[in-house]
Amino acid sequence: MPSKHKRKRMVLRSTVSQYLMPRKKKIGPLKRAVQREFNKMIASGQPCVKCGGLFKVMQCSHLYSIGSYPNLRFDVINVVSMCGRCHNFWYHLEPMESRDWVVKKYPGRYQYLLKAKNKLVQHRIPDLEEIRKFVKDKNMKKLLIAPELLA
Ligand SMILES: [Zn+2]
Q1: What's the pTM?
Q2: How many Å apart are CA 7 and CA 14, to the nearest integer?
Q3: Residue 83 CA to ligand 1 centre (angstroms)
Q4: Of 25, 49, 52, 80, whose CA is between 20 and 30 Å from 13?
Q5: 91 Cα–ligand 1 center, Å
Q6: Gap between the Cα atoms of 129 and 123, Å rounded
Q7: Cα 140 vs. chain centroid, distance in angstroms?
Q8: CA of residue 82 to ligand 1 center, whole Å
Q9: How far is the CA of 20 from the centre of ligand 1 (A)?
Q10: Are 59 and 39 in contact (CB under 8 A)?
């Protein structure tokens, strides 16, 4: 059993660290927030690239899905504005048809994505904070994971 004096010091130390030590920031909520802002920048007020419809709520459709290619989640070449119907009930339900459509409609994007999709990209907290700034400034040139492919 530590002495009374020592116990008091231990309590004090834990109380001080509780208030002064920086808490480890969780990356999930930040990543989701930046994704929401990025998606809104892409889709808000933009007609659906498939049917031309413009609705109050538009969706940001990732040509290469976030699940398969998380490195492309914040790349402006990989995203288009779609209405909920085309995005959820056509693009995702008809992968073979929608792939052919992407190749025909966006041959340049398709060529870029074929190469860019293999590039490793990390999204750590500082990277996400930087991306958030680029989104806020609508700096499209900085929202490409492989700008060298377009040069
Ligand atoms: Zn549509």
Answers
A1: 0.83
A2: 11
A3: 4
A4: 25
A5: 10
A6: 9
A7: 14
A8: 5
A9: 51
A10: yes
